[in-house]
Structure prediction request, 342 residues.
Amino acid sequence: MKYKLGICGLYFHINAVMELPEEKIELVGIADKKHAKDSIFFNPNVEPKKIAEDRNVPLYDNYMDLLDKEDPDIVAVYCVDSEKSDIIVEALKRNKHVVSDKPLCISLEQLDEIEKAVASSQGSLALLLPFPYDGIYKKIKEIIVSGDIGEILSVRSRRAYIQKLNARPKWFFSKQHGGGLLCDIGTHEYDLVRYLTGKDALEVTAYAANGKIKQFETGEDYAQALFKMTDNVFYTLHLDRISALNSIGNQSSMEIIGTKGQIVVPIGSEKIIVTVEQSEGLAEYTKFPEVNIYDELMKDYMNSIESSDYSKPFFAPQVLKSVRSVLSAQKSADDNETKIIT
Prediction:
């Protein structure tokens, strides 16, 4: 079977969907609003009209026309973050397969509506989070499952991104349209830790602020969150768009402490250091399979659609637990109070 694909929006990571194999996917249309260059929604990275012409498909100004006239089987949602939930809910009501990049939505109220739509739809919803396909994290998962470091007690992770001010549309740095640092980058990092540990968040205290990008008054460029997770596992998350500007190379790191040892991925490193019951010494892992994580993710996505098996962790309802946790963290930072995650 060949699936008809409709694309709503052409922002960030859309190539992962547009490069799906032609023998399985037929692109039938694109919906993307036209914006003037001085608009906060202007996308400096793509020309929608040219992409549609190159692909020989119609370009619509709104997603309802795309859904009505082309009736796609799969709807890819890559539009302004604040607008995603309306499209997702409408597509699910029509029993479509919906795929989106992060963040899925920018508020708990939007998530509530998406969850209702998922529960009553014969379609599916997937959030494309590729980090679990990275060889280094597959190895960490293997070490945890082996029991070598015992029961997990705490996790600390840091993720630093370079602030690409000139390569991003202005809405991206707006709380009103982009949601905030925790619900954006935090989705990747929290979902990764949830995958590694198998734990879910119960409550969270978080903070976020604007330290450097003062030209965007409502933007956030650094944040921290402390999650209390199931089985008394504590997870500390640090996010920023500042430190990478002043450093060379990868500024991400992770530390997982267990009852019998610990796993450390040092800052700027592509290796895993494992210490088990200090007397047993230290092990280092430096070689991991080289894979294109988005290619591997999309292969799994298409296999799931073809087999009607939505058990992969990037499908709803499983992935919605991660979305609710990071949105609760964002809400905690916005309201300056601890949030219980239900």
